[in-house]
Design goal:
Number of strands: 2
Strand content: 5-15%
Order of helices and strands: HHHHEEHH
Distance between the termini: 65 Å
Largest sheet: 2 strands, antiparallel
Strand order of the largest sheet: 1-2
Shape: elongated
Oligomer: single chain
Radius of gyration: 28 Å
Structural class: mainly alpha
Number of helices: 6
Number of domains: 2
């Protein structure tokens, strides 16, 4: 017997006309249960943003300046994402990669607080920085 859509619908347990099937599908899609599922999917969807930069310098000293620029940009992006978050902490990864040495992670904070204290002549032990602020920077 050749394939026909009506035999396929009968095999699925529906024996009515195609118009009824269309209305049944529409009715099912408008059900409160389906709406709840759609709302849950929208609420938990994740989005990944990617920025990729490729450079080719003859002087390797310029790579250090680019690492610092990437670190600062990542700090800004992370702070913005934390402020916009709906309770779930965003994840961020910053790294450089080349053919010879492979992937090198760029630390997001790497002594930022201590560098700030050093610039004003303070010490981490006598700083007015709260533990909450330290934890926010360290991501704990």
């Amino acid at each position: 017997m050749p394939w026909h859509w009506s035999t396929q619908l009968t095999a699925l347990g529906f024996a009515g006309p195609a118009e009824q099937l269309s209305r049944l599908i529409d009715w099912k899609l408008q059900s409160p249960q389906q709406r709840r599922l759609e709302q849950q999917e929208e609420a938990t969807i994740q989005r990944q943003f990617t920025i990729e930069l490729r450079v080719d310098y003859a002087d390797n000293e310029k790579n250090q300046a680019m690492r610092l620029a990437c670190q600062q940009a990542a700090q800004h992006l992370n702070a913005t994402a934390v402020l916009l978050s709906d309770g779930q902490r965003p994840q961020i990864a910053v790294f450089s990669d080349d053919f010879y040495s492979g992937r090198e992670e760029i630390e997001l904070v790497s002594g930022t607080i201590q560098a700030g204290l050093d610039s004003i002549g303070g010490d981490a032990n006598d700083s007015p920085v709260s533990n909450e602020l330290l934890n926010a920077f360290e991501g704990t």
